[in-house]
Write a structure and sequence with these properties.
Layout lengths: L12 H30 L4 H12 L3 H10 L4 H23 L8 H28 L1
Length: 135
């Protein structure tokens, strides 16, 4: 579990606010993804196409998050966790594709989505606390 630094940050607040907005948007996109997956499972399989297409795009938010973390000189733990978030996003494809040969691996697609959601939420909270400590 990551501890949240409480020391105020010097400058670069624009990049930090950008990071917070992008991270919060990522959390909302993950919630929308879960909704679309639920619609595909419980309403109509046709929603899986939208789930896949949306998933292909919203993960790209992580790249500008990493840039904002670097430019905003966020703590190393947050910057590295953001890079790790991109790795978790990439694993979504691995788990789904490996499921073609070992179907039980597809279940990790869902578990990993929860880990991504939790991680993105914790990152947003950490940056929020850093910005509030500075105010």
């Amino acid at each position: 579990m990551t501890t949240v630094p409480t020391t105020p940050l010097p400058t670069f607040s624009g990049a930090r606010w950008t990071y917070l907005v992008l991270c919060s948007l990522l959390v909302l996109c993950i919630l929308a993804q879960v909704f679309l997956a639920g619609m595909g499972a419980l309403v109509s399989p046709s929603f899986y196409g939208l789930h896949k297409t949306f998933g292909d795009w919203f993960g790209l938010l992580i790249l500008p998050m990493a840039i904002a973390a670097f430019v905003g000189r966020l703590p190393r733990s947050i910057t590295l966790a953001t890079v790790g978030l991109f790795g978790l996003y990439a694993l979504q494809y691995v788990f789904f594709e490996l499921g073609a040969t070992a179907s039980f691996l597809r279940a990790f697609h869902v578990v990993n989505a929860l880990v991504i959601f939790w991680s993105a939420t914790r990152l947003a909270q950490a940056v929020w606390h850093l910005l509030r400590a500075r105010a």
